[in-house]
Amino acid sequence: MTRPPAVAVPAVVAPAPPPRRPSAATGELPRRACGMWAGTAKAWACVKGSYEISAGRSITGRRLAAPINV
Fold this sequence. Notes:
mainly beta
């Protein structure tokens, strides 16, 4: 039994979603999230400064961002 040839299906573009309400998220980060590995001390060292925390479904779909100071 042979199969019929494949049929090309045109791409479908979905309409843009409606604007969303502002969102918020809370959570905890491990101390090393703002640090670097200090090889001589063989431990995580917290690097003081300003960082941006972001969240989303993927690296290209980040929807929330907030600055933090350590």
